[in-house]
Amino acid sequence: MAKKKRSELLRKSDTSFGSAFYDSTNLPVDETKRSGFQIRLRLEDGLKLQLSLQQALWELNRLDQRSPRSREQGVALTFFPHQKRIMVTHGVLKYPSRPNLKKNESDV
């Protein structure tokens, strides 16, 4: 069966502004569930988070990415649920060259 040609351009969802892979987490992972968790932010707090991330990423962007030590650097988001607070800091990645590493692939 021949595929129909799309007459419209494909567009991203209006409800998503993008996503990124994370290096590691200390949250317990339930392999049977595929759902994520949401964190809702007021506009002011969203802007604070955006500025914090932007500042941390600007600092990382100044590093020479040809250096393995520089490629190990990343951004860490630390969540404090009891304070309803998110902190942006610099962090060292566990798997700097493989963003989609799964637990059973770590020995490869």
| Mean model confidence by pLDDT | 77
Uncertain runs with pLDDT below 50, 5 residues or more? none
Instruction: Give the fraction of residues assigned to helices.
Output: 10-25%
The order of strands across the largest sheet is: 1-2
Number of strands: 2
Report strand %: 5-15%
DSSP helix count? 2
The first-to-last residue Cα distance is 41 Å
Quick one: overall form?
Answer: extended
Outline the biggest β-sheet. 2 strands, antiparallel
What series of H and E elements makes up the topology? Answer: HHEE
Rg measurement, Å = 18 Å
Structural class: alpha+beta
Give the key terms.
108 residues, alpha+beta, 2 helices, 15% strand, extended
Structure in words:
The chain is α+β, with helices and mostly antiparallel strands. The protein has a domain at 43-100. The protein is built from 2 helices and 2 strands, in the order ααββ. The protein has helices spanning 43-61, 68-71, and strands at residues 73-80, 85-92. Strands 1-2 form a two-stranded antiparallel sheet. Strand 1 (73-80) and strand 2 form a beta hairpin. The longest helix has 19 residues, at 43-61. It is extended and about 50 Å long. The relative contact order is 0.14.
Task: Walk me through the topology.
Blueprint: H1 43-61, H2 68-71, E1 73-80, E2 85-92
Antiparallel strand pairs: 1-2
Concise synopsis of the structure shown:
Helices cover 21% and strands 15% of the residues.
